[in-house]
Amino acid sequence: MVTRSVYKGAMMPTDWTRTLSAATTIAVTAALLAGCAAPPEAAPEPTGSPGVEVGPEIADAVAGVIGAGAVAVVVDVRNGDEAVQWTEGVADLDEERSAEADDPVRIASISKTVLAVVILQLVEEGEISLDTTVEEVLPGLLASAPGDVTIGQLLAHTSGLPDYIPVLAPDVQAVIDGREKTYEPEELVAIAQQQPWHAAPGTAFHYTNAGYTVLGLIAEEVTGDTVPDLMSARVFEPAGMDETAHPDGSAMPDRALRGYMSVDGEHVDMTEFEPSFWSYGASLISTVGDVGVFNAALQGGELLEEETLAQMRAVGAEGYGLGVLAGGDACGTEPAGPVYGQRGNGFGYNSITLASADGERVVTVAYTGGSFDPATDPIFRAVNDVLIAGLAHTCP
């Protein structure tokens, strides 16, 4: 299914792939986007508004995601003021309701980019700097640290701070059994520190959700406001994200995609999940359209000053900057231009968004039915085919 609209304005080894699979999934995404891949075969011919030329490549790739095992996939492709959505699969296996482009999903670590914008805005305002240490703002929070941890290191995942996820969710059964347990942010940071630090601060990349939990605590301490309120006032409202929110509890909106996780050939419904497990860096609920609007606004310079955005995009060897990952465009230029965004790997929900450097061309994908380990899931490669097709579809 394809729909068209017009808008105005504007992610089990010890280190565990759920955290984005760190350098592995980033590198794979970048490599796949650096060149075009052949789309899967056979898909229903898409339909669109009269006079709008819609080729089959994206529809073929979207059908390939279902063929790879997804229950539902929703796609939003933006080119300037025009947006086109594709959907395949079912939103609810029990009710057999077809997936729709505006069905809400959990966007997992795409939330990190939203929080990074808030932090960088506070840097622009002089409230903090990238060199501000955690100890300066929240004394004793990282008491086990082998050195000073800075805000910039937390944004870039180079603090060396361990993650709490391997402790709380060492296997899929632990995830299923613990889906309703609540956590305080400080508790998660303490749990993370039960493990050895991965490296001295600033010396190595290691993706950690706990680092963004610390960033959320810093934002609240500095401003006196809650992270949900900060995200709403500083990002959602100016970007025009009307369908995005920080959940109050484990329930999803009635019309949301059900979040299925593939376990031993069965689809386990993970829709109801306590958001405090993900804390500030991976708990948002949104739609592919809203995520597309956000990435367009961010890369288009509407949320950060030019110099700050350049700092955010300064990626290391792992392809990760200050809350964003980078890949190569699919427009056939040599060398390929950069695209920027984020991947969100949750339990039952997976998503990714990538945008051209000017924010004019954006592709956002969300799907359900993925496995516990997204990096080894065949759906992962199929989704990259969608990204390639979507970016190629909007080539100048």
List the helices and strands and how they pair.
Elements (H helix, E strand, L loop, with lengths): L1 E5 L15 H12 L23 H11 L4 E8 L2 E11 L4 E2 L6 E2 L3 H15 L9 H4 L13 H6 L8 H4 L3 H6 L7 H8 L16 H15 L3 H13 L20 E4 L2 E4 L15 E2 L1 H12 L6 H8 L11 E4 L9 E8 L3 E8 L4 E8 L1 E2 L6 H16 L3
Parallel strand pairs: 6-13
Antiparallel strand pairs: 1-3, 2-3, 2-12, 3-4, 5-8, 6-7, 9-10, 10-11, 11-12
Can you characterise this structure?
The structure is a single chain. The protein is an alpha+beta fold. The chain has 13 helices and 13 strands. The strands form three sheets. Strands 1, 2, 3, 4, 9, 10, 11 and 12 form an eight-stranded antiparallel beta sheet that branches. Strands 7-6-13 form a three-stranded mixed beta sheet, with no helix packed on it. A two-stranded antiparallel ribbon has the order 5-8. A hairpin with a 4-residue loop joins β11 (349-356) and β12 (361-368). α2 runs antiparallel to α13 (378-393), α3 (110-124) packs across α10 and α8 crosses α9 (209-223). Residues 2-28 and 30-53 have low confidence and may be disordered.
